[in-house]
Amino acid sequence: MDPFERQRLADGRAGARREALAQAVTDRAVELVMSAVDVNALLDRVDLNALLDQIDINQLLDRIDISRLLDRMDLDDLLRHIDFDALIEQTDLGAIIAATSSGAASDALDVVRSQAVGLDEFIARWIARLRRRPYPGPPGPPGGRPAKAGS
Amino acid sequence: MTARAGDAAPPGPPAVIRESLQGKYAGFASRFTAFAVDIGISLGVFILALAAVSFAATVLTGTGITWHKGDLWVIITYAAWAFTYFAYSWAASGRTAGMALFGVRVVRDDGTAASGRRAVVRTLALPLSFLFLGLGFTGILLGDRRRALHDVIAGTAVIYSWDARAARLRFLTRS
Asked: Do B107 and A148 count as a contact with CB atoms less than 8 A apart?
């Protein structure tokens, strides 16, 4: 073997050993320091209010491009993952909706319309069954383009 | 707010309504019941009008007017009134009173508001759907766009115009 090649291999092995030793020493030193320092006492000495006073929230918000942030978020996908039924059962959102909704006449209308829609679906499902076709739900305009509907 | 086990379920939106139906083509039951309500309203108003005329004639001349449903002019007058009721309602807002009750409305086949001309054509073509035992209505049951014969002739469609999802949320808050 070339003597220079042998020397390079020996240097490489020695370097790896030195690196491993340095790593072990560093880990041990950090461990000793962390065990010696009382982190809670350290945090008690930090005045968070003073720290927050030094931060200009308005300036921070000015630097955030909200539009770009929203563009990068898929809100439709996010909303699809939300179980609104469970949300209403667990929060006061239902009470808010109920408070902002109109009265008994509106409720009666909801019931009448809902029953009619339920009957629509029942008939449509049976027609599809008789025609041996799948029924994916109420049909809409082609391409998902919603027809303009008022209240 | 949470329903307790064993409680009877209150009447409300069926479980099928988990999305807003706004803009979807309306089904047979909603359309038929809305039409039945409209016939009832138009007939009720017409009978009240005849009674008012008869009362006025009695007061002014002392002689009442007797109406017979088979009289030709009574039929013609009712037909004219029904035409006005449906055509004006569809032209003005896209819906009659019955359709407003059931949350459906008439639009052009491209989804925009129906014009006065289409409303008139739709009203004139409506009797055609009743021919041959109502064969013209089968398009609502079998067609992809749920259009009856008079819809095809007038270039219109009937869609749901109420937010079923909001109704379901309101229902869940009460149950």
From this structure: yes
- Interchain contact B141–A (C-beta under 8 A): yes
The residue type found at A86 is: A
Contacts of B27 in chain A (CB under 8 A): 117, 119-121, 123-124, 138
List, as one string, the DSSP characters of B92-145.
Answer: HTS--HHHHHHTEEEEETTSSBPPHHHHHHHHHHHHHHHHHHHGGGHHHHHSTT
B145 and chain A in contact, CB less than 8 A: yes
Cα separation values, A87 from A75, A82, A91, B156, Å: 17, 8, 6, 39
**Per-residue model confidence as pLDDT tens digits over B28-63:** 999 999 999 999 999 999 999 999 998 998 988 888
Q: What's the pLDDT tens digit per position in A44-77? A: 888 888 888 888 888 888 888 877 888 877 777 7
* Average confidence score pLDDT of chain A: 78
Instruction: Provide the shortest C-alpha distance from residue B150 to chain A (in Å).
Output: 19
Dihedral pair phi/psi, residue B146, rounded to 5°: 55, 50
Smallest CA–CA distance from A89 into chain B, residue: B2
pTM of the full predicted structure?
Answer: 0.62
Joined tokens for residue B169:
């949320």
Tell me the two tokens of residue A33. 């320091």
**Does residue B164 belong to the interface with chain A, where contact is any CB pair within 8 Å?**
yes
